[in-house]
């Protein structure tokens, strides 16, 4: 009978509607470790370790495996990594879509980490371009942001080319005299922020939060017209009647994904990870404790888990009982 | 080459004619300036489809191989990871003592001591495990290829070409296919580094076996050995020294590739630490993690070099004593040995380096900006888009006009004619061609001109075969639709190679004259060559921000090394008889340098230039992390989106550019060597 119930739960999940009060599921192969992907940034380490600790509390063995964020989907589809717990829709690899379609990877729902992306600047830039954070101010002080490559336009440091070109799209949409220069990597973005802060030189950059650099370099967002669907489809919408993209970024979704065989092999773990969520208010202090205060991810997460049992315990219990 | 029959004049004339025709007809026939998009073939897609089909077929075998390799990997990891650190340090010191006495022992102790103090011990042992498996693999593959090429001379030239391809296609380009084939994990990084590290071994085996004394060979034949016996018992042992050079080079190449394994992940190694710190732009920590790799490289390099030179060995009893002592330390302090990953002795130093970098950037911001702007406005931009687009009121203070172009061409033509009349027709023609290139810019060069010029150059350098090969290769890039990106790559690496040739040549000359300078420069060269290239990117970005100038500097930092080494080597190696003869005939030191040493060193310097070109292309992919356009960026994009076709095509285009440059330079070097009678 219980077997039948598990099967029913799996069918419900396959239909894509994860019920709020999750059903009890079998533990499955507890003696085999569940491998979680560790990507290149601290926030992801925190999210993954919290999820992993929940699995351990449920009685699983967890292994953390380092994996390149952009090219880990082959490994997930092959079942060599079993889940990735923080994937940003704003810069997900094309490979994810292909593997999702081919059926090797399944989505585990939102992490509900509220992310914000936008055109940003370190706080000292407000003195160079008075009128910020209002976006209209940028039109007049574009020349202060100009460099050798972009003259006579201002320079906007955009995301690395493989994450798309949201900065360039905004500048065209809002008809601002800025040329977007793609960074090559996240390291390049941080180096720009750091150099600008230390030199007090002008900088306009596409950035996101939660990110440790937001507070480390006191980064502020430019106020753009709030984005809604019409902005990206209807040129007439927004301050520029002739173009789309004349608004702020659409909120980006942060979600989880797993190997498609996980549901069969570790049903309860699949439940737990599907229902696992983490908020910015919880993640950001942990990131700070690691990146700024130099704590280890394991210790920081362990003490958070001990202090916040009420936030995660119900998810684990719901899956087990 | 006899001047009267030199093909240089007609060749240069042909190139000039092609360029002039393109420039004048540009307005009527726009397809001359830009290769029409609808003439290109979807080669990238074809390559992708074909490769995916092929990879799917090979996958089961590859997965099996990967599973097989997992075992030695696991063992190496367990052996290195479980051994207590005092025993590892003791063993390294003991080996050092046995190989080279006190200095080597000190090197082993100091090197591994640094690794321990850095707090990266665990990660380092993982890296070492990776190298410990990939190097034997590379040695075996390289050795077999080398012996096969020696046994069957007919395949030798195709083997050489294959080795070139293995070394010039950027590793990032084939990471995606490897990932598909071998699955996730350190095995992919290991295979990638084995592919890159095998060619030096193969080349040295071929060279060593070629150089076996014919008399030795005959002796082996006469004593009635079978072919296998001759090979194993006589030829390979007598080529041992050259083969050991190959082993050494193979080790170094494998070590320089460990960072690649980290991009895939699956392994908590030192390369992953470099990537993490690079992502946070923490220069101090990145440098420290990078230095760990440098330390390994230097320890392994010096020790394997000592192994290759069969000099007096240290007393083995002392070596055993050192090992015994470290076992004793482990036994006595067992419980009280600190966990190596908690050691942070060097962190304050790393922080200081980081702070110093920040302060330097803050204090010299204006000067750094001016330096960059100068280089961009007056050198890089004109090279890329030509004077006609780079000279603008806010860069040069005036607008470039058609009249100025005409004036420039007229002046170049007059100067060229003067040179031609004074008997230097080739220089005159080259001057006119050069002015045309500066006016149009490398990225805007008309494609027919590039094809004709390459054909002419290859013809002069070697002859018809090379000329046809070069043009055929270029044509594949042209029709594959990667031409514009290829020209951008050519421009960036070309500018870097030129700067490296001038600056590196000068430093090499200085080092040849003053050995005390060489001692310092040599250390810097060692570090630049083995530290993961990612580490350089942070300070370059802090100083000069995202852009071409930063990419240019990053490429130069890496590609300048061979130029310095080879220039110095060539100048120092002049035979003493020649120098004595020059001194006896009353030449001044300057005359000796100019008329004796420099011409004698020319082939070696050209070889250095060749290596500089290959290094510059190799670095283009890393420079894409700064934010460049061109083939490097394509390769990176392909890696991110797991696009097999684009990655492999862009990698192939990069290899084609590198190969053409390599063949041209080698052909010219060969000509010089023949002229000198070497």
Q: Can you describe this structure?
A:
The complex is a heterodimer of chains A (321) and B (678). The longest helix of chain A is centred in the N-terminal third of the chain and has 16 residues, at 42-57. Residues 1-22 of chain A have low confidence and may be disordered. With 321 residues, chain A is α/β, with parallel strands linked by helices. Chain A has helices at residues 2-14, 42-57, 73-77, 94-102, 125-128, 137-141, 166-173, 186-199, 212-216, 229-233, 262-265, 267-275, 280-291, 297-307, 309-320; strands spanning 34-38, 62-66, 83-88, 105-110, 116-122, 130-133, 154-158, 178-182, 204-209, 219-221, 254-259. In chain A, helix 7 links the parallel strand 7 and strand 8 (178-182). Chain B is an all-alpha fold. Helices cover 81% and strands 0% of the residues of chain B. Chain B has helices at residues 8-25, 43-82, 85-118, 121-151, 156-168, 175-182, 186-210, 214-222, 227-238, 240-256, 258-264, 270-279, 283-308, 316-333, 347-363, 365-385, 387-390, 402-421, 425-440, 447-461, 464-479, 483-513, 515-530, 534-544, 548-572, 576-584, 589-623, 631-641, 644-676. At the A-B interface, helix 3, helix 4 and helix 8 of A face helix 6, helix 11, helix 12, helix 15 and helix 16 of B.
List its salient traits.
heterodimer; A: 321 residues; alpha/beta; D-Maltodextrin-Binding Protein, domain 2; 2 domains; 5-stranded mixed beta sheet; 15 helices; B: 678 residues; mainly alpha; MetI-like fold; 29 helices; 81% helix; globular
Helix percent of chain B reads over 70%
Overall pLDDT score of chain A:
84
- CATH fold-level name of the largest domain in chain A: D-Maltodextrin-Binding Protein, domain 2
SSE-based structural type of chain B: mainly alpha
Our estimate of the beta-strand percent of chain B is: under 5%
Continuous helix count of chain B = 29
CATH superfamily of the domain at 466-676 in chain B, please? MetI-like
Order of helices and strands of chain A: HEHEHEHEEHEHEHEHEHEHEHHHHH
Look at the helices and sheets of chain A and give the structural class. alpha/beta
Radius of gyration of chain B: 27 Å
Structural shape of chain B: globular
């Amino acid at each position: 009978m219980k077997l039948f119930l598990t099967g029913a739960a799996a069918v419900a999940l396959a239909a894509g509607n994860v019920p709020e009060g999750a059903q009890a599921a079998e533990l499955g192969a507890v003696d085999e470790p569940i491998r979680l992907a560790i990507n290149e940034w601290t926030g992801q380490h925190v999210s993954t370790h919290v999820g992993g600790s929940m699995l351990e509390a449920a009685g699983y063995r967890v292994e953390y495996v380092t994996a390149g964020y952009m090219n880990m989907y082959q490994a997930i589809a092959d079942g060599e990594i079993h889940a990735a717990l923080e994937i940003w829709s704003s810069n997900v690899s094309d490979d994810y879509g292909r593997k999702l379609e081919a059926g090797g990877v399944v989505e585990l729902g939102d992490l509900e980490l509220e992310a914000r992306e936008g055109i940003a600047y370190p706080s000292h830039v407000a003195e160079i371009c008075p009128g910020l954070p209002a976006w209209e101010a940028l039109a007049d002080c574009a020349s202060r942001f100009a460099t050798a490559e972009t003259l006579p336009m201002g320079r906007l440091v955009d995301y690395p080319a493989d994450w798309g070109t949201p900065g360039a799209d905004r500048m065209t949409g809002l008809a601002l005299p800025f040329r977007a220069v793609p960074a090559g990597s996240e390291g390049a973005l941080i180096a720009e922020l750091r150099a600008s802060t230390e030199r007090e030189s002008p900088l306009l950059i596409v950035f996101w939060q939660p990110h440790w650099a937001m507070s480390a370099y006191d980064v502020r967002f430019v106020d753009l017209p709030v984005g809604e669907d019409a902005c990206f489809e209807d040129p007439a919408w927004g301050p520029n009647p002739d173009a789309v993209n004349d608004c702020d970024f659409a909120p980006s979704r942060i979600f989880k994904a797993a190997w498609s065989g996980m549901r069969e092999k570790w049903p309860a773990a699949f439940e737990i990870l599907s229902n696992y969520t983490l908020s910015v208010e919880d993640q950001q202090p942990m990131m700070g404790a690691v990146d700024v205060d130099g704590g280890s991810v394991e210790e920081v997460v362990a003490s958070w888990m001990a202090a916040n049992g009420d936030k995660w315990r119900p998810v684990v219990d719901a899956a087990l009982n | 080459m006899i001047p009267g029959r030199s093909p240089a004049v007609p060749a240069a004339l042909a190139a000039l004619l092609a360029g002039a025709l393109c420039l004048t007809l540009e307005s009527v026939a726009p397809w001359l300036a830009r290769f029409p998009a609808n003439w290109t073939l979807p080669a990238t897609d074809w390559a992708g489809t074909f490769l995916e089909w092929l990879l799917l077929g090979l996958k089961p075998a590859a997965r099996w191989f990967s599973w097989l390799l997992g075992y030695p990997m696991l063992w190496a990891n367990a052996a290195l990871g479980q051994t207590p650190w005092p025993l590892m340090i003791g063993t390294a010191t003991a080996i050092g003592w046995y190989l080279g006495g006190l200095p080597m022992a000190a090197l082993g102790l100091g090197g591994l001591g640094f690794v321990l103090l850095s707090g990266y011990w665990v990660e380092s042992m993982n890296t070492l495990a990776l190298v410990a498996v990939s190097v034997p693999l590379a040695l075996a593959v390289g050795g077999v290829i080398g012996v096969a090429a020696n046994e069957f001379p007919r395949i030798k030239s195709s083997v050489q070409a294959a080795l070139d391809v293995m070394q010039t296609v950027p590793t990032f380009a084939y990471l995606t296919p490897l990932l598909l084939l071998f699955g996730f994990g350190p095995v992919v990084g290991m295979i990638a580094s084995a592919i890159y590290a095998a060619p030096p071994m193969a080349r040295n085996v071929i060279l060593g076996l070629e150089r076996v004394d014919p008399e030795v060979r005959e002796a082996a034949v006469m004593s009635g050995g079978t072919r296998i016996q001759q090979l194993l018992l006589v030829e390979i042992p007598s080529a041992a020294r050259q083969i050991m050079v190959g082993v050494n080079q193979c080790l170094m190449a494998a070590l320089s590739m460990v960072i690649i394994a980290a991009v895939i992940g699956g392994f908590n190694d030192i390369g992953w630490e470099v990537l993490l710190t690079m992502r946070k732009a923490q220069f101090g920590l990145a440098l420290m993690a990078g230095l760990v790799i440098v330390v390994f490289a230097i320890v392994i390099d010096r020790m394997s070099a000592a192994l290759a030179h069969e000099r007096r060995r240290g007393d083995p009893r002392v070596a055993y004593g050192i090992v015994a002592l470290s076992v004793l330390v482990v036994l006595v302090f067992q419980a009280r040995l600190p966990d190596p990953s908690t050691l942070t002795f060097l962190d304050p130093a790393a922080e200081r380096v980081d702070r110093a970098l920040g302060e330097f950037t803050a204090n010299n911001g204006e000067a750094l900006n001016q330096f960059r702007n100068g280089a961009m406005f007056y050198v890089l931009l004109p090279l890329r888009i030509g004077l006609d687009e780079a000279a603008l009121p806010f860069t040069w203070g005036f607008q470039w006009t058609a009249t100025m172009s005409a004036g420039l061409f007229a002046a170049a033509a007059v100067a060229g004619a003067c040179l031609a009349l004074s008997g230097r027709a080739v220089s005159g023609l080259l001057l006119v061609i050069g002015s045309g290139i500066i006016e149009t810019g490398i990225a805007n060069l008309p494609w027919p001109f590039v094809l004709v010029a390459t054909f002419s150059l290859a013809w002069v350098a070697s002859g018809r075969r090379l000329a046809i090969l070069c043009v055929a290769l270029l044509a594949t890039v042209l029709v594959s639709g990667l031409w514009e990106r290829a020209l951008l790559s050519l421009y960036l690496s070309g500018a870097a190679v030129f700067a490296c040739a001038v600056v590196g040549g000068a430093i090499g000359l200085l080092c040849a004259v003053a050995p005390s300078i060489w001692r310092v420069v040599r250390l810097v060269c060692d570090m630049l060559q083995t530290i993961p290239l990612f580490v350089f990117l942070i300070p370059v970005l802090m100083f000069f921000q995202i852009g071409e100038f930063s990419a240019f500097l990053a490429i130069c930092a890496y590609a300048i090394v061979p130029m310095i080494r080879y220039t110095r080597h060539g100048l120092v190696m002049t035979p003493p008889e020649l120098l004595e003869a020059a001194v006896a005939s009353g030449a001044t030191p300057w005359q000796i340098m100019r008329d004796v040493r420099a011409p004698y060193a020319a082939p070696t310097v050209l070889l250095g230039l060749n290596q500089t070109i290959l290094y510059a292309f190799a670095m283009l992919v890393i420079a894409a992390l700064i934010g460049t356009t061109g083939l490097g960026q394509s390769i990176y994009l392909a890696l991110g989106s797991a696009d097999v076709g684009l990655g492999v095509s862009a990698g192939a285009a990069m290899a084609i550019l590198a190969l053409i440059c390599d063949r041209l330079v080698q052909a010219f070097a060969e000509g010089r060597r023949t002229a000198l009678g070497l």
